[in-house]
Structure formats: C-alpha cells, structure tokens
Amino acid sequence: MAATARWEVVRKPSRRGATSGGGGSMGRKALGDANGGRSLASSIPLTTSETLFELGFEKTTKKQNKEQVPPPPGRQQQKKQNSGKNSKKGTAGDSGQNKQIKNRTLEDALKALDLSELQRELDKSLNLFPENPSVWVKDLAGYLNYKLQATKSEPTLSQHPHDYPYCLVNKELRSIIKSLLLKAGGVLELFFDHCIYTMLQELDKTPGESLHSYRICIQAILLDKPKVATASLSKYLELLRSHHNRPAKCLTIMWALGQAGFADLTEGLKVWLGIMLPVLGIKSLSPYAISYLDRLLMIHPNLTKGFGMIGPKDFFPLLDFAFMPNNSLSSSMQEQLRQLYPRLKVLAFGANPETSLHTYFPSFLSRTTPSCPSDMKKELLICLTECLNLDPLSFSVWRQLYIKHLPQSSLLLNHFLETWGNTTKKVRKTLQETVHSFSVTNEELAMKGPNNFQDVAACRTACKNLLLKMKASGFPWPRLILILLIFTAGFLIYDIKTHGSFQASASAHVLQSSGILSVSEQAWNKVSHFSVKGYSWLEANIPVYYSQVATMLGPNLELAWTKTNETAIYISGKCSAHLAWLSNHLLRLSEWLQTQLPDSVLYAVEYLRELLLFLMRNCFLPVVDYIAVSLDGAWKMWLAFCNGEGSWTCLKMHLTNLIQSSWTYLQDTTVAIKDWAVSTISRHQQ
C-alpha cells in the first residue's frame, strides 16, 4: 500500500557564508598593498583591491527566512516561463542601456556627473580611512571611471588637443581633484603607477571600458608635479619593452608619460629621450614619438629651459635619423624630423656653445665622409665650421684627429676654401696656423710611404690652395692710405722748409689758385667766431638763468615736497586698517583666484612677473648703478680739480687749460713728425 502523500517544508541553504566576506570594510586593501605583489613588467593580470565605491555598488543578498511550499507543477512551470521572459527582457534592456552609455560623448558624461554625490563619496572614504590616502585616490578614479563611460578613443588621442580630456573638466571638478591630490601627496607615484597599470589591464579585456577617468587623473597629477613621471623612467622602459608586440599598450604608456612634458619642457625632454628615442625605429611607435616631439617644441617655444638635456650621445642618433637615407623611418617622418632638427641642435649646443662644441667636433668629423649623402654632408660641414668659429678648442681637437681622418679633413679644408669670404679674421688667423701644421704633417706622411697616398695628396692640394688664398686675401687699403698721408705730410713739411714759410711755399700757391685755401680760411673764421660767441653767451647767461629758476621754483618745489610727504602720511594712516584686513585675507583671496581664474591667466601673470623681475635685475638696476657711479665720479673729479669749490670760474679755467695742453701736444707731435720727415728726405737726397 502506498504511503500517504505528505507536504514537506523545503528550506534554501543560507548564503550568509557566501556574503559575509565581501561586504565588510576589513576586506579593504591600500593601494600599496594591492600593488605590492606585482611588478610593472609582469603581463599576468592581477586582481585589483576593493574600494569604497565598489563596495557601495555591490548588490546585497537577502536571506530567505520564510518556509516555502512548492506550488503545483503547472503553476511552477508557468512561473518558470514568465521568469525566463522577464530575464530576457531585462538582459535586452541592460544591453541597450549600456550601448547608449558607451555611445555618448565624454562632454555629455561630464555634464551628467553629479559633483555633490562625488564629494559625498570622497568624504565617506576620508572618514573611513583617514590614514590611508591611497584609498582616497583609488575611490576617486573608480567613481569617475564608472560615471564617465563614453565612446572610446585611440590610445594617443592624436585627434584632440594636447590637454584632452582634462581640458573638458570644469572648474568645480578640477578643484575637487586638485584638493584630493594635494591631501594625498605622498602616494602620487603609486597612484600614477596604478592608473597606468589599470589602463593596461582594460586593454586586455575584450569589450573593455573607456579610460577617460584615468587619463584625467594622470593629467591632473602631472600638471602640478611632472617629475612623478620621470622618477622611474627605466622601470617604464622595461614595461614598454615587455609589451613591444602590443602597440596599443605601448602607445598608452608613451601617452601617459608624455603628459609631463606639457607642464615642463625639461621633464618632457627626459621622457622623450628616455622612452621614445629608444623606440624611434619601431614602425608602429615612431609616428607618435615624432608627433609628440613636434607638439612639445611647439608648446614650449622658449628653448632655454631645455638647455643641457640633449648631449652628444642623444644628438647624433637624431642627426642620423634625420639625414641618413634608407633608415627605419619613412620619408614623411624623416622630413618631419628634419624640420625639428634646427631646434634640437639649439638644445644640444646649449647656452654656452663656445665651451662645449669641441666635444661634438669628433663625431661631426667622423661622419663627414666623401660617400656621405649631399644633404647630410652640407649640414655636417656647417656644424664643423660652427664648432671652429665658436669654440677655439675645436682646432686642437682637429689637429689630434687629422691623421686618422684625412678624407674628412680634405673636405673641410675645401669647404673653407669655398667659403673664405665668410670667415672671420679671428678664425683666419687660427686656421692659418692649423693649415701650416697640416702641411708639415702632410710632408711627413708623404715621406713614410704610399699608404693613404690619395688622401694625403688631396690634403696637400687643399692646404696649398688655402695658403695661397690666405696670402692673397685682398688689397691692403689701410696701409696704402697711411703711406699716402705720411708722404703728403712729408712733402708739405719739406716744401715749407725749403721756401721759408707756408705762404711762400708751392703748396700754398696751388691751394690759393684752386680756391681751397680761401674757402678753408673762411670756414675756420666762421667756426671760430661762432664758438667764441656761444661760449661768451653761455658764460654770461647760465648763472643768471640758474639764479632766476632757483628763485622762482625753489619755494614751490619745497612746498610740493612737503605736501607730498603729508599726503603719503595721511593715506597710510587712513588705509592702515584696510591694509591689515587685506594682509589677513590675502591667502583666502589667492585661493579664490586660483579656483575662479583659468590656469592660463595664472601662468601668464607668473611669466609677466618673472619677466619684470628679470628686466629689473639685469637691465634697470645695472643702468641706474652705472649712471650713479659715473655721476659721482665726475662730481668728485670736478671737486678735485677745483680744490673742493665747484664754481663756474674753476670749470672755465680747467677747460681752457685742457684745450691749451691738447693744442700744445698736437703742435709738438706735428713738429716731431716734420723733423723726422725732413731728416728722412735729406738722407735720401744725400
């Protein structure tokens, strides 16, 4: 007999154990702990630590405490069908909503962002973990990453401005981000590392998420502290090499590190030389490396801040990439790099090329071979000439390298021969000594044997032609004019001595018959007359006018000075309270201005202040000091001449004595020249 059918109470298993470990705050880990077990070069994806934001959005599981009785089979089957339909509808609705979120622009996502909610989440994080700033910044990045899901962009953002996406962030959100980063200043390097690593992890996922929030955080960090990116460039270079077969990851790393250069040219050059120059030959990475360098030098037109960053070991690979054909760069990229080359050369030569160019000379000389491409040969010869013109030590370096670089030296000597007219006198003198030493060396090499016979012959010919060019370097006009003047003076002296006086001499008759003597006498008489008349007028009227001006304006000037002092004292007394209030609220005013004014205005004001300080220190103050010292010296000299009495009579007396002594010296010199010329002519006649 069958047993009587009975209903049984069915209980679902408790999920308390499954949910107890995920919701507690004890499961939180700091950024340093979460990243402590990995290295940057590892390609194995690691589990990121939980954040307060993730815990807040985690779904809680409800426990079922009621006893449930299984419904009839028909009703249970109908319920399953209905639940299946509802789940399909829900899945379709979620996918449509996610698709709509992914297709919106970043501008729309930023406009829809609730800043008050963000501030509440950050305040909650600060209250729960007051001693763990790494959690704060991770919560910031996590919240923004959830809210700013938008259309994805390519890794380098080449179609956008250099400060995209941070340029889209409004002032309020910037203020929130900056204040939080300021509080978490000790973990910024770890946070920067976390942002890069998270971006690389998202690139491994098939759909993946947009990385705008991490890009915004990276730009916010490097805008104020660009040295965060350059603190461990070797580590990032290893990371870049470990992902060499993943161009998207490499470009993401290059973009993140390159943001430091837009705030500081020095840090940007460090990133480019340490990260992008080593990968310049890679086809997928070279376009971004060159475009980044172009944008970096365009944003920083003042290259003085980058002096000292590029040395010979960095400059000459760039020279080879720019001018050597058939290298790993395409023709368009090589042309783009060649357009940047002049500015790179300025950066390499630095602020004091007269003391550093001799270190570049050996590499320039070794590359100047006869088989060198014409464009590169032209540039190398220009650089060699510039080294010799600016740095005198380059000549000694050339003498040491001459025997080992005979073909290159012959090209350089022929270049000097072609451009001899543009060579300065200082360089010509040193070059002449160098060519003489080369000639001696050529003779010694010719006597040793037939080794390098063609190169030695080419150098001998170039040295010979250059020495001939030096000897016939133009007509000596100054010497000819000096000889003519001496001959004319000697002839006049001899003529005057022969005839007894100037009026009886043949020279006077010639000058008088031609009318030159009468015109000269009239001009001299007029000049003398007006000079005496002007001197008499000054002597008679200057004391009178000075006394009248002192009488009329003296009391008024004294009264104006007194009133000015009283006004200044009155204004300072009235405004003392306002000045005290302003000094107390100056810090608050500066903070308000920083939040209200654009960053570009603040940068412009800072640059203007530095410019004014530079002009004050280097131009205005030295000129004022020089004028003051000159006036003081002139006044002391006048007092010394006048025995402490600065009177007009004393000045007149000393000017008269100075003119008389000058005239006496001129007469004595003329007589001495005349005696010498007469004695020379008399000896010649004998």
Automatic annotation (TrEMBL):
Compartments (UniProt record): Endoplasmic reticulum membrane
Keywords noted in UniProt: Apoptosis, Endoplasmic reticulum, Glycoprotein, Membrane, Transmembrane, Transmembrane helix
Keyword Endoplasmic reticulum: yes
InterPro entries given in the database record: TMEM214 (IPR019308)
Source species, domain of life: Eukaryota
Region (Disordered): 1-102
Basic and acidic residues bias spans: 56-66
A GO CC term assigned to this protein in UniProt: Golgi apparatus
Comp. bias (Polar residues): 40-51
GO annotation terms (biological process): apoptotic process
Regions that span the bilayer: 477-494
Key word Glycoprotein present: yes
UniProt main location, coarse: endoplasmic reticulum
Chain intervals with Low complexity compositional bias: 75-85
Pfam families recorded: TMEM214
Membrane topology: Multi-pass membrane protein
Subunit-level organization: Constitutively interacts with CASP4; required for the localization of procaspase 4 to the ER.
Reported function: Critical mediator, in cooperation with CASP4, of endoplasmic reticulum-stress induced apoptosis. Required or the activation of CASP4 following endoplasmic reticulum stress.
Family to which this protein belongs: Belongs to the TMEM214 family.
PANTHER family associated with the record: TRANSMEMBRANE PROTEIN 214
Name this protein carries in UniProt: Transmembrane protein 214
Source taxonomy: Eukaryota, Metazoa, Chordata, Craniata, Vertebrata
